[in-house]
Amino acid sequence: MGMSVAVLEDYLVQESGSLSVSAGRPSPGVPQSGPVQKVQLGEAAVFHEIRNALAGVLGHAELLPLLDDLNAEAASSLRQIVLSARRALALANAHRQQPAPVATPPEGAKPFAVVEEVVEGLRPIGRGRVGFELCNENVLPRVTCPADRLHQVLSNLVKNAVEAIAPGEGLIRISTRPARCSIARGHVVPAVEIIIADNGVGMTPEVRARIFEPHFTTKGESGGTGVGLSVVQAIVREHGGYVNCASRPGVGTVFRLVLPAVGDDQSPA
Question: Based on CB atoms within 10 Å of each CB, which residue in 48, 161, 191, 234 is the most buried?
Fold first, then answer.
């Protein structure tokens, strides 16, 4: 399978100076965006997020005909179907009603718990295509991004990683670890770093420079809306963090996002 994902991650992170960008400071060539991008991505964004949530529904539903009875695996799949369907409905309602911004709950999200939930939901889509490797370093604080929004961010990134890998040849490594994050006036606060690395097809510098642009896509007629990564960037920035990417054709891609911790919280993640 060539270079291991762990080595790939270190290689690409070291290669790309853009991975040390401070919070709220966009990488060169990336368009600016306001809170939740003030997202104005309209119906295309709604469609994109609903489709991602329903991908989990379809992935698990397609497993059920293969089972003779409702054993433990079938029951687990059914639970994932319910979770994904509820998430899709919540997203649709939220976008349709366009509610006023709501303050982040003080408890924040447990990063690694959200990572595990996302991987469990998308695992059937990657079955026969990729393997997943999760690495949680030390006890992590909660982060400023609520769990449902962090789920939205990670679902986009992990699903893209799955789609970038040829069947049976890939590995996606997701690691979480403590970090530091620069915020207003250079103030440095505790944070959590989440890195998603894959050994897929990778991107050219020209493509990578445009991935956060609204409606930019390389999927052509396969159905890409080009709003997933722009929404990812908007959500992360809205909660005081930053996200960036390093990639090389034929080697793979690494996304790194950093989110501030909630106060001085050090509860297990």
Answer: 161
Amino acid identity for residue 13 in this structure: V
Please name every residue paired with 255 in a beta bridge, in sequence order, or none if there are none. 196, 245
8 in Cβ contact with 251 (< 8 Å) = yes
In sequence order, the 6+-apart residues with CB closer than 8 A to the CB of 269 are 110, 111, 112, 113, 136, 139, 140, 141, 142, 176, 192
Mean pLDDT, the chain, rounded, equals 76
The strand pairing partners of 189, in sequence order, are 181
What is the rounded CA–CA span in Å between residue 139 and residue 115? 15
Domains of the chain and any CATH numbers = 5-260 (3.30.565.10)
Q: Which residues contact 207 (CB under 8 A, 6 or more apart)?
A: 218
Rounded Cα distance, 172 and 131, in Å:
6
Residue 9's nearest CA partner among 180, 175, 233, 244 is 175
Paired tokens of 51: 């489709």
pLDDT tens for 119-165 read 988 888 877 778 999 999 878 999 999 998 999 999 999 999 998 88
Please say whether the beta carbons of 195 and 232 come within 8 A: no
Instruction: Classify each residue of 200-220 as buried b or exposed e, where b means 16 or more C-beta atoms within 10 Å of its C-beta.
Output: bbbbeeeebbbbbbbebbeee
pLDDT given at position 28: 40
